[in-house]
Write a structure and sequence with these properties.
about 65% helix; about 375 residues; mainly alpha; 2 strands
Length: about 375
Amino acid sequence: MLYHLLYPLREIFSPFNVFRYITFRAAFAAVTAFAMTLFLGPWLIRKLYSLKVGQNIRKEECPPLFALHRSKEGTPTMGGALILLAILISVFLWSDLTNHFVWITVFCVTGLGFLGAWDDYLKLKNKRSLGVRAKTKFVVQILLAVVLWLFMRHEHHLQPFFSHVSLPFLKNWTFDLGFFYLIFLLSVFVGSSNAVNLTDGLDGLAIGCVTVSALVFSALTYLVGNVKFATYLQLQPVAGVGELTVFCASLVGAGLGFLWYNAYPAQVFMGDTGSLALGGSLGVVALLSKQEMMLFIVGGVFVIEALSVMLQVGSFKLRRKRIFKMAPLHHHFEVKGWPETKVTIRFWILAAIFALLSLGVLKLR
């Protein structure tokens, strides 16, 4: 909005010319989102407490963790609504609202946010950790992914390479998946959304890792959207996708602001309202910027967490034996006796290492 209001006035007041630069708008979008989250956080926490929107922890559903997490019972949840509000307002203030990539990202993230809020509401209503049925949740995620696929298929800036997938470590190696790209897109979109949801089990763990990943994609979207930088790094240029830098920067700012209240001991949890939407946002940005495979490196922590669950379930079904003491992986270390803060900080360190690795990969092409 500010871009459309102030940039046209550059001929009257030349300093308004800075609004043409994505880096300027991205920086202020991050600051805006951070300030909003920090300012509104105390009000939201008080409001959630008054509405008794507290986390339910039932002994019969997670006996190994009941003693460890008993003190968390009653902590307000659905704090992800604050993150999404800060992101959306920052995006509307600082981005180019004529950009199609911005709108499809906002649509998908908002849709996942409503799905997560519905899930959180049912958990609170039923006073148990089971909300929306897995099949229903999966169907909604697939519908949103199909809308994204249709957009990519008809977006002229993505033609004729919208169904192409490139490998991070190799240059000039791309695969045209054709119609099978839809299946690949579904895997990335649904997988990223659920992987962050699985990671959201300790104070500050998920939001810290998401913030690091969003910071990397702030750089990637800017590079891909700039023809000169993309050509130099041998990335597939995507005209217009650079505007998603503003979105990613807003996510970084909102994430840092939320971490202020979500750090141990957490004053508020993001709930599925936040985790499903934030995970999906990383998937959408990776798909639109044609950096799908980079997501597996950038979000290495989320990949490990999701794999730990799949291996645990598969092993138990096939061998009636468990690989880990508990899944996802962060709970395994908790049950082993690691303090919660140690698990969280070490996973943050891993997220930072994966982020550095992903940036280093750019020069290996």
